[in-house]
Each structure stands twice: as structure tokens, then as C-alpha cells.
Amino acid sequence: MRPTARQVAELANVSVATVSYVLSGKDRPVAAETRQRVLDAARQLGYTPNQAARSLRKRRTQRVCLVLSSFGGVPTDARLATDLHEMADARGYSVVTLSVYDEARAQAAVEVLRGGIADGALIRLTGGHLEQGLLGGLADTGLPMVVMSNGSGLEGCDVVRTPEVEACAEAVEHLLTTGRRRVAFMGQRYEVYSDKPEGRLLGYLTALERNGGAERIITGGADDRVAAYQTATGLLSSPDRPDAIFAASDRAAISAIWAARDLGLSVPGDVAIVGVGNIDEGLISNPQLSTVGPLRHDYTDVVRLLFDRLQAEEPPPAREIVRSWTFVRRGSS
Amino acid sequence: MRPTARQVAELANVSVATVSYVLSGKDRPVAAETRQRVLDAARQLGYTPNQAARSLRKRRTQRVCLVLSSFGGVPTDARLATDLHEMADARGYSVVTLSVYDEARAQAAVEVLRGGIADGALIRLTGGHLEQGLLGGLADTGLPMVVMSNGSGLEGCDVVRTPEVEACAEAVEHLLTTGRRRVAFMGQRYEVYSDKPEGRLLGYLTALERNGGAERIITGGADDRVAAYQTATGLLSSPDRPDAIFAASDRAAISAIWAARDLGLSVPGDVAIVGVGNIDEGLISNPQLSTVGPLRHDYTDVVRLLFDRLQAEEPPPAREIVRSWTFVRRGSS
DNA sequence: CTGTTAGCGCGTTCAC
DNA sequence: GTGAACGCGCTAACAG
Q1: Among A228, A326, B83, B239, which is most exposed with the fewest C-beta within 10 angstroms?
Q2: CA-to-CA separations, B79 to A158, A233, B101, B279, in angstroms, rounded
Q3: B64-103 residues touching A, CB cutoff 8 A
Q4: pTM
């Protein structure tokens, strides 16, 4: 059985109140000798306060929740997690992560968050319907949330946006204005099979539109590296193969470079390739990967949004941050 | 303010006990009409039971905790997470994840787990000292744990091991017996800078030993793709370059393939390359990657260990599973 | 079939 | 400086 404050108190010959005061580091004065007895007793018993009881009483968990789509490991998620952990540490919060990669997980996450697992949440999901499911289920809770998303209907929480559509359009326009005539889009499932184009696909379509409506070539396959390789191989083996591929992720774009090279095609000579995300790996591909995304992966501003809200006296009004995205032209285009 | 069971009770004109019985799905008989009133009231107020109060009272959280080193995204972690979530769902548990990528996070995880966030934990860390810190801090709690590790001192919890050393030795021996004379080892920081060789490094050393003590060439750089590329470039640019590289991860091995090709070296002609992990990406590299690891990524047996322990009447004795690893020779060696 | 009651472990008044 | 007593929101035992 886990030791309780009562047991510590008995062992130290004090009351539970004194144990609480000593261990929660309040400024209430406690005699040095008493304090030491309590500390010794706690150590001896291996006592750690029960967080459920503590949060029930204090009506705060001192925890924040990070909600991510997957452990598939986009570097953005990793950096975001690091920045969150760091600031949480500094402000005396713990971090727990919820992984939401499908509808069932979105429902589960709603339950857990409604159940009060944390005082606030930082949410970054890829896949519009997952986000809708989650935020819809949380709308009436007033839980402090920061959402990284370009979606709509995000009232009541802080929102962090990127100029994704415009930046992708710029990248595709670059391809078109440097002489590419058949630009293919390789997207993620949720984009390609959505009823209304958004995000990266919308950027692609916008660019085609602006440039006199070049042919639309739209495929999936950007969800993982193997699928991307296979998709790119298919595209590039066709007799009327594209002369450029705009991939919805850098990982997919790098797979496409491999596919092209394995088919004996030169990049960017025969086919130009551009990705999204600006991950470090793009610097070691051959040729180096052209991409669009943030220049620096620093999310302290995002994270600060959450903690400022948590620690404010008055709930601040919903804020919005727009991060900057840049087209980075390298060797692959 | 979040609605409480009391408010639901008042709205439905029943007692809080009835609310509890209706919503927690106990078999206590409740009149259909009463039940409906409670359900309506709960829905109307947007009531979700406070998990802190519930676990305090039930002395169970109905949660399990997944502890991982990072979101860097080894596919193994992703599959493990999927299998855990699935079985948790089926058995009525939630899953929260703790991310332990450094010493501070290990300490934080100890606090959180000691604080009682979950009824059990599934732990898979890379980095011996992190694991020691975590398990040491949890040793006296009796928390049900399943640990995926080849370390020692893991009494009291279920352990899942791999024949890592022997399998890696086999891979390196394969290189030596196919005529390679200078086999380099590219490892992760925690292996290379450890005082006592273990794991993949130990496998490498064992193979050298067995084959008459070929020269040891040991570098770091396997922690991320860019570092691996740079390290491999350095190794392979040297006048007495190795004619084989055994990398501690498939991702690093693939970076090494790129590095070799960018230097105009043929793989496996000039340099053979072997990785660890058997990730899918090895099938689309050129040449395909030789590797050592599990043939199937299925972790239901691991996950079952945890839930069986959680749901058993009597705590079962500590179990041990040894998963099989195989050397898979492909084109790169 | 339903209501009343007594804690779960802790933090916080209020007395002393 | 310290202890006793109350209640956070909920479930489980016991009455009725």
C-alpha cells in the first residue's frame, strides 16, 4: 500500500497538516527540527503525495497535456514537445501526451481531457476531422487550449497559424515559372480524400489556377516514406510523366528523389522535386531538397501562450499567432 | 465551473448515488424512467465525472502509462503505441504517454508515476542511464510495469528482451567472413560513451574478438540522420577508409549509404553497410538495406503482459519474454 | 428500486 | 509554531 500523509505524520510525531506544509513548500513557518523529522519520515517511507487527492483538493492538476497525431516523428512535433517540457519544468508543471491518430483516439482524448487530466492543452493534429472531433467535444469545457491549426471554428482558444496555402502556392508557382509544365501533387490521405481542398492541396490548386490552369495531377502517398516511394515510382514510370513533384512532406519528397534516381532520372533536370516542412534531412539528400516551411523550429512563443493563460489572473482574450513560412530553394528544383 | 454529480442529481431530482450508478454502468437496477432523467440531465449539463475524485475513491485510475524516449519516431515505438492503445480501448483503459529523453524528464516521470497517474506502465527507453534513473525511482512502489530492455537489475517487473548482442555479432561476423577487413561501428551517444560496452556495441566487439581481433573503429553519430551522414562522410573520406559500416540504427545506415554514394563509392562494392531495426524504409533504399531486427513488428504479446497483470486477482510472478531477432541480408552487404 | 452516509488522501481554514 | 476539523467529487456499503 502506498504511504499516505497520515503515516508520515505518525512516524514524525506531527499532524498531517504539518506534513502538508513541509512538503508543499508553503511559506508557513515550521520549526527546523520538526521540518527535518517530517522530511526524514517521508524519505523513509518513500512518500509521494497522491496527485488525485491533491488535484481534487486544489482544483488544479499542475499538469498540461500535449495532443499529437502520432509518434511518426515529424521534427516539428519533437521540437514542440521539447519546448513545452522545458517551460513546463520551469513553471512547475508536468506534461502528459495524448496520441490521437484516429477517430477512436479522438473520442478517448475528449473523455480524458473532460475528466480533468490537465489544466490546459496544446493541440497539434494533422487531419481536419480529428481536430474537429476533439475540439467539438471540448468546446463547452472552457479548458484553456492552444491549437496549432489553420482550420476554422476555433473560437475561444488561442490559435497558431501558418501561411501554408500561400507558401505552398509560391513553391508551385516557382516550379511553373521555371518552365515545368506537368506538376504533380503528392498529398496525405486526409487532404486528397477530403471533399473540399485545403492546406497544401489548396496551395497547389491556387498556383495552377493563377498560372493559366495547368493540368492537375493529384495523388496520395505522402503519409509514409515507402508509400511515397512507390507512388513516385508509379508517377515517374508513366509515359507522360510529370516534370515536377510537389510533395506534402519533406519525407515524401526525399522518397521521390530516391525514386527518380532509381529510375535513372536526373533531379532537377528531368524532374524537379519540392517538399514541405524544412526538416534537416533535406540538407543531406542529393540533391539538397527545396522545401517550404519555417526557417527556425522554435516554439517557445506557442508554448508561452498556454502558460500565460494558465497563470493569468484574468483569462486573457483569445490570441492568434501567425508563424512565418518561407520557400527555400535548394538543388532539387 | 465544471458540473458535478450533485448538480446532475438536483436537475434530475435524484440523489448523487443514483447518478453515479447510472453513469458508471453498474449492474444496480435503476428504473428506466429514472435512468433516462439522469442521462438527460447529464447531457444537458455536459457532465463528465471528475477522474481525480473517481480514482481517489476507487483506488484505480483505469489508465496505463506509456513511457518512451522520444518522439523521434522509431517505427517500433509507433507500433508499440498502436498495439497498446488498441488493447487499452478493448479493456476500458486510457493511455497517457510520458516522454523521457533526458535526466530531468526521467525525474519528472518518476514523480508523475509515483503520484499515481496510472495503474501500470509500459516502459521502453533507449539509454541505460535513463532507464536506471526511472526504474530506480520506481522500485519501491510496486507499480505494475513491463520493461522492454536488455538491462540488468530488472527484478519485480515483466521484462521483454531481444537477443540484440548475439544478432549484432552475427551481422558483423557476416561482414568479416565475406571478406571485410575494416569494419566500423557507428553507435549512439549513450553506447559509445558508456564505460562498459553493451548492446549493439558489445555485439560488434564480440564479433571482432571471435574473428581474431580485427581493428576496432568506433564512432558516434547514429543518433540522427544528419549526424550519421556527416560521420559516415568523415569515415569514408579518410585514406584508410573502412570497407564496412555497422550502424546502430537503420536510419543511420541509410544515411551512410547516401554518404557513400555521394562520395562516388559503390555499396556494397567499396563499402558494405548494415543497420539495426529492420524498418520498412530499408526496402526502398538503393541498394536495399541489410539489417538485423525483428521480422514482424507486433507487440500484442508485450502489451498483454501488462493488462494481464493489471487485471489479475493475484499478482502473477515476474515474466520474461525474449523476442526473436534475425539478420536480414539484402543488397547493401 | 432509491436515498443516506462514510470515507478515499490531501490542503486549508480556524483555534490553540 | 502546531493540531483538529472540514470538504474537494465521487463510489460503495447499508438502510429503507
Answers
A1: B239
A2: 32, 26, 19, 11
A3: 68, 70-74, 77-78, 81-82, 85, 89, 94-99, 101
A4: 0.96
